[in-house]
Amino acid sequence: MILWADGLSKEYIRNSNKFYAVRDAHLTVEESDYIGIIGESGSGKSSLLRLLCGLSRPTGGQVKWNAKSPKEEASAGLPAIAPGKIGYVSQGMELLEAFTVLENVCMPFFLQKQKPDYKKAADMLERVGLGKVMHAFPAELSGGECRRAAIIRALIMGPALLIADEPTGSL
To answer: pLDDT 10s digit of each residue in the chain, 171 long?
Structure first.
């Protein structure tokens, strides 16, 4: 078992009204599994994915990575499940505007306090047709180019699990 969630819930408050984006979700992900989560807009899919990769704290239940509970990541103040082992592609355009495409792709190295592997990043960018724009800034790229760069960033550390929220948007 790579990832396990039991009774996972996320409650929000909007206009003084409480509502659940995720309520009592249970999930087990084994090595080599491919899982798709479908649902209507606003049904909690993105909230669930953010809970599974540790970017949001659950209001109920728990998530475990290889049978280990999340640990507190001091720099972000949010739970971090298996840092560097889960690649995440968010629904939005999450590239940092002040950094080049190459620097954005290498960001996970910096976050893990490792020396960035620029050659590996450049090779991966080349493979997805972004070799000529690796020194450009996100504002100079199309939506599809930004999306491909975000996918490479999620894969650069060789994660055991990739969580992607609408990864083909803008492609």
So the answer is: 888 999 999 999 999 999 999 999 999 999 889 999 999 988 999 999 999 988 899 999 998 887 665 554 434 444 455 566 888 898 886 899 999 999 999 999 998 889 999 999 999 999 999 999 999 999 999 999 999 999 999 999 999 899 999 877 766
Question: Phi then psi for 152, rounded to 5 degrees?
Answer: -65, -40
Tokens in use for 56? 């949001």
By the 8 A CB rule, do 70 and 83 touch?
A: no
Q: 136 near 101, Cβ under 8 Å?
A: yes
User: How many angstroms separate the CA atoms of 163 and 25, rounded?
Assistant: 16
